[in-house]
Amino acid sequence: MAEDLNTYTHLPLTIDPQSKSISLHPSAGLSSVQTRALESELAALNNLHRSLHSLDPPHLVPPPPIPVNPKRSAQVSKLRDSGNAEYKKQKYGEAAKFYTLGIQMALARPLWEPSQLVREEVHSLFSNRAQAHMWMQEWPEAAVDAEASVEAKRVGNAKAWFRRGKSLLEMGRLEEAREWVGRGLEVEGEEKELAELGREIEKRLEARSAGSAGAGAGADN
């Protein structure tokens, strides 16, 4: 501690490993007046540390003059449109490549841009790529993409709910498909295609149960 410009006194301080707060060690040997003065300074320092630590990291980066880069938005839209064009030509692999580039560009937005904008962009791109995978019978990839789309937008996204449910059905994961479609119907209401898929899954489950029962009866005989 600097008592004046020509004197330096070394004081034992401790730091809490969890909170990182600094305090004066009891062995400092200061007078009560000196102790109170130093503890007041340490309290102010600890309060400043807590205030800085509690800041939300995105706010540490100053935003640019334009909060949303219109060029990036236009590029994401162009990649999605290019993917849709390839999809209509039944070039599903090429369509998936464009959707992938669009997803990468959307997810690379700076932290200061609205997260809701990213969600709106990627939910459709993931859903579209899931559909392309389905046409190529790449069911695991389709299931993953459709789930990612739902994570980005749960409500008003019946196509993605349907596409994951259909992919699980095609993989023979009937119980998972039934649970997923049931959750989708709770969110989307009695959406026609989703409800029909639910009935198809129930028929498959019943057929499997009947087949298992018949095989068991045959074995007993």
TrEMBL record:
One of its GO terms (molecular function) is Hsp70 protein binding. InterPro entries: TPR-like_helical_dom_sf, TPR_rpt. Keywords: TPR repeat. SUPFAM superfamilies: TPR-like. It comes from the Eukaryota. TPR repeats lie at residues 158-191. GO terms for biological process: protein folding. One of its GO terms (cellular component) is cytosol. PANTHER family: TETRATRICOPEPTIDE REPEAT PROTEIN 4, TRANSLOCATION PROTEIN SEC72. This is Translocation protein sec72. It comes from Neurospora tetraspora. The lineage of its organism: Eukaryota, Fungi, Dikarya, Ascomycota, Pezizomycotina.
